[in-house]
Amino acid sequence: MSPASTSPTPKTIDPRESIAEERKAPGFPIRELTYWIDGGKKATELKESIMLELERDPLWRVNDNPNLTLAETRERAMKKIRRLADQAMSHPLENTMVRMSIISVVDPGFWTRFGVHFGLFVGALQGQATPAQLAYWMEKGALSMQGITGCFGMTELGHGSNVAGLETTATFDAATDEFVVHSPTLTSTKWWIGGAAHTATHCSVYAQLVVDGRRYGTKTFVVQLRDTKTFELMPGVNIGDLGKKMGRDQIDNGWIRFTYVRIPRSHMLMKHTKVLRSGKVIEPPLAQLAYGALIQGRVSMVSDSANVAKRALTIATRYASVRRQFGDGAIETKLLDYPIHQHRLLPLVAQTFAMIFAAREMTSSYRQLMSELGKLGDATGAKADEAIKNLKETHATSAGLKAFCTWMCLNIIDQCRQSLGGHGYSAYTGLAQAYSDFAVHCTWEGDNTILTLQCGRYLVATALDARKGQPLPANLKYLARAMAQNGAAKTTGPCTGSTAEEVSELRVLEAAWGSVAANAILSAVRAFETGQAKGMSKDNAYEFSSAARLHAARMHSYTYLLQRFVTQVEQSPAALRPVLTLLARLFGAHSAVQHSGEFLQSGFYSGSQIEALKTFVNSACTEVRKDAIPLTDAFGYTDYVINSPLGRYDGDVYEKYFDLVTSLNPQKPVPYFDSLIRPLLERTNESELGPELEIDQEE
Amino acid sequence: MSPASTSPTPKTIDPRESIAEERKAPGFPIRELTYWIDGGKKATELKESIMLELERDPLWRVNDNPNLTLAETRERAMKKIRRLADQAMSHPLENTMVRMSIISVVDPGFWTRFGVHFGLFVGALQGQATPAQLAYWMEKGALSMQGITGCFGMTELGHGSNVAGLETTATFDAATDEFVVHSPTLTSTKWWIGGAAHTATHCSVYAQLVVDGRRYGTKTFVVQLRDTKTFELMPGVNIGDLGKKMGRDQIDNGWIRFTYVRIPRSHMLMKHTKVLRSGKVIEPPLAQLAYGALIQGRVSMVSDSANVAKRALTIATRYASVRRQFGDGAIETKLLDYPIHQHRLLPLVAQTFAMIFAAREMTSSYRQLMSELGKLGDATGAKADEAIKNLKETHATSAGLKAFCTWMCLNIIDQCRQSLGGHGYSAYTGLAQAYSDFAVHCTWEGDNTILTLQCGRYLVATALDARKGQPLPANLKYLARAMAQNGAAKTTGPCTGSTAEEVSELRVLEAAWGSVAANAILSAVRAFETGQAKGMSKDNAYEFSSAARLHAARMHSYTYLLQRFVTQVEQSPAALRPVLTLLARLFGAHSAVQHSGEFLQSGFYSGSQIEALKTFVNSACTEVRKDAIPLTDAFGYTDYVINSPLGRYDGDVYEKYFDLVTSLNPQKPVPYFDSLIRPLLERTNESELGPELEIDQEE
């Protein structure tokens, strides 16, 4: 703590010089990598023009968000709604999508406020209304928010993931040709309904369809909440405000209770299940098609995970390239030059690239699937069976990846925040709020644990089907060899290399991960079969195997990400291939070291090969460190989107951090000096009673 | 999503019944466990009386904290300062300590606001002032906040962990017998100074002592910031407000800049280094003694980790015992009955017990050490050497444990929050704010990564000393066998058991962890030696080995926690021993499965033994589940301290959650309906320009 005697006056370095030197000799063409990440030059340019447009619009100021009250936060969000709604109507769809993907990074709470109407409410109409119903609601202004603002009434106080268990009822009254929507219990109160507290005139309500005393499961009904002229609540509708949340305070979540609210029969969305005037219920041939909308939300959360991680890592690496601490000489050492700091951040950079590429492939296979399903219409037969099979696969994969990537991103945000030291705890450096905003991604649109188990169930079922001769889907080909070995623990033979270089080749890592994932799936199959052998029902046997299923899904997700990464490396321009290969290897090797037990148990790597992998991770970190700033520059976010003085492109962190903090918190007299502090300082010991009262004592 | 046809109307169960049935047949005497956790019946009763006292004091209302603005939050905190300061003066010290430990759970931001004065400012005086100086400041009212409120000026904008690198200077002016305190650069601005923005009249400033142009390292100086009558800033002092933070907004962190501020020479705290009137500097024989104060802070953060984890797990397990979801029959299944939910929560319960016992032992060994050091005085010789050695060990262990336990607790909070599903995202269910408040524990009082590396450095140095014949400290005895084998990888022989029961016996787990920790330390020694063999300096060789050191410190911390757990089990009352033994085994086995690679590499466990460990973890979770509610009941926090409707003792979660949310957020007309929503709804498409303007076109 106190090195005796004369140390020289420490030298300080202009942080702008510190970051500038990081850009002198990038190991790859930065701009080309940006194009590759964004999906081409045109996509990058569109993104850049939209970032600029937002930055220049005073409505879109975000760096003072931390100083707004809840009421101010919500009001500011409402102001932006109109701007965006008008743009959505008049600009090409692609622009709106890019704008929303930027906004989800810059202002996630607002993204939700807007998304509840355009994504969930309109999405429910698009996915569940008949063409005539859709036309009706569009005519009423549902798409453009002219006359209608919507919210999405699924979750209840007592029911989240178990949609089939929702308690709200919609009972058909044949006499009047109406449904009576009702909340029978406290726990059936609609809860967390974004937009309900302040914004919405209508709600797509998920409720139990009841006809003639029979329950037909959860269907969707459009219920008007407020008069569109006066905003008074409609008869039978009660609404409350859920107030403060961990994050995303831009969106006004509320609760809704329905007391015998009557709606016309036509307000049930009848694309799938229909209720006729007679009360006859017609159920759809392909109930699973309703899943499509769920997948879209999940795929977009994989993209969002990648985008938010890009921002977090840009902040953390830029700060690490200018922040100096300890060191030998008169000049302190950059954080980024410490091996441990490289270990903290650079594997996360590799993870982020893995998520970028997984998101891209998920998006394109989702679009392909939807287009196939669209062409299919109401057809049945072999083609329909095939489409259902693909839908199931995409559904399971998207469930697993949504969970895996949102958890990964949440961890990246917090690791990056911690890497900023104390400054990570300021509300003005950007990552504290990023964490609070992002955290809900792990819960909504399917709780991550439940989604991971769903994915695990699919993996077990697929392995069982394959044993019966069904072909394996493309992403699960790695199971084939393991299956051929009759389920024995060893799958792809052990790694034959011994040097750090050999054990970390991409094709070796891919085989390694395939082997571990196959093992994990077969182990979950065994757990399931053990449960069945004990006489459990199928569902109970799945429950019994849940820890193994969860693990299998995680191992599968790593493998899926590595596979996608490898594919993208192979397709990438030659100039980018070396750095992307290095990142893919770092991703695969670092994750393998983190799970070394699995690899040792599967027999793919020996103990000394694991040590060699660790050596590779060390050297890969040293290599990636050289390009850490060019790599995060290539993410291509402007300072406006980064929205953190510590993550500025020019490295001028201290001046700009000081300026931001002082401009947002101008010094004023301490408001409670006279009322509280002066009396504290000037008080004297209370001894007004004088000496203690003495009383006689007997011994 | 839509099970066709008639499912029966679901039954709802009163959640109070659901939790009541959990308490019908506890497997151990709950009250006795509470006594054991708290350290005896008397301690429990004192804790209970203080919880009740706080609950009944309207000043201490906390359940509306989420709805306060930053300004209201700070003002409310200031109101409580006086109450607590008066109590601290008039009540026994033990009461104040228990009160503060409750407050650190109920209201962590206030705890900091109060602790900055009583812990840090007064602590600096106690640790670094001469007896005469201490008497002077006490006389001025420093202890009782009568005339003086203090803050602690260590961190700077550009310097955190590297205290020796602080830039603020205190230059001796022999002509006037004063020090001139000065902030030479922007980065030397004191930053994060709790209490500076609104509260403090004085600051203990850490600055470079400069005498006659020579620098003597960082020393501490008391500098007055504000006039105590008017609260005007003193000449040369500038202060600003750091505004909003991730959490702990009760404390008014600020920045301070000094421009040639003059203070009397006597305001340098001279218990260790002295500056005489002549300018002669006398440095202390035992510079390390200044570490003592650091240790206390770290030990208290281990206790705090245990206490905060107790609250989080009480909320999560109680909610899991009443929340129902999915399931076979008409009644949905309790979350706590799902194996995966047991896996999510119950190992965390075991971790919490491990932290409780580690905190207790750390506290008592710290007190013993301080008492020894106190007796020692200024003596030198063998006794002093021994004391310094103990100090180093306690310093290193406390550093490692502070990091390990705060990270563990942060993870526990977030796992518990996620286990509440969507309700975990509400500000009124308690864990979102708990996370934000707690997160700073991973950074302040020593950044966790740096502390872990310090602990790792101590472990490497100790192993090197032992090789030279120095005796091993008690907590590192496990190194002995590994050392005897001349540093070879195998240490304690491989486990001989094969059943789940055998591989998870406590003595086996203890040996297993000792073996893995020894391996990790020897591996860090090898990395260090490799660095030296490459010609690196000692410091650079340590840097080179940092990933291995970090890992060694983590493995050592697990081992330390398990050892403490075993000791406590052995000393516990017979009635508690079975349940504590089960928890200790779950802690050791679950952590081992999480790090299975280390155990396979060390050769202690084989692959099939790891599988047997997993089987044990599954069955231990099933066992612990039976007593999950009694165990968290035994933590002994009242509903006031739990401060979450989902964690209520009586299980009446839905009614009370609804009541809290609605009472704190009464419904009012939407404030911006007329200004923003109506114009949005009623707008028409803008086409005032009529048809597009046509212009001539040439082909």
UniProtKB/TrEMBL annotation, chains A, B:
GO terms for cellular component: peroxisome. The active site is at E445 (proton acceptor). It is found in: Peroxisome. Its cofactor is FAD. Residues 507-681 form the Acyl-CoA oxidase C-terminal domain. It catalyses: a 2,3-saturated acyl-CoA + O2 = a (2E)-enoyl-CoA + H2O2. Its main location: other. Residues 13-23 have a biased composition (Basic and acidic residues). Residues 30-140 form the Acyl-coenzyme A oxidase N-terminal domain. FAD binds at T155, G194. Residues 1-10 have a biased composition (Polar residues). InterPro entries: ACOX_C_alpha1, Acyl-CoA_ox_N, Acyl-CoA_Oxase/DH_mid-dom, Acyl-CoA_Oxase/DH_mid-dom_sf, Acyl-CoA_oxidase, Acyl-CoA_oxidase_C, AcylCo_DH-like_C, AcylCoA_DH/ox_N_sf. Keywords: FAD, Fatty acid metabolism, Flavoprotein, Lipid metabolism, Oxidoreductase, Peroxisome. Residues 151-259 form the Acyl-CoA oxidase/dehydrogenase middle domain. Residues 1-23 are annotated as: Disordered. Pfam families: ACOX, ACOX_C_alpha1, Acyl-CoA_dh_M, Acyl-CoA_ox_N. The keyword Cytoplasm does not apply. Residues 291-460 form the Acyl-CoA oxidase C-alpha1 domain. The keyword Oxidoreductase applies. Pathway: Lipid metabolism; peroxisomal fatty acid beta-oxidation. PANTHER family: ACYL-COENZYME A OXIDASE-LIKE PROTEIN, ELECTRON TRANSPORT OXIDOREDUCTASE. Heteropentamer composed of five different subunits. This is Acyl-coenzyme A oxidase.
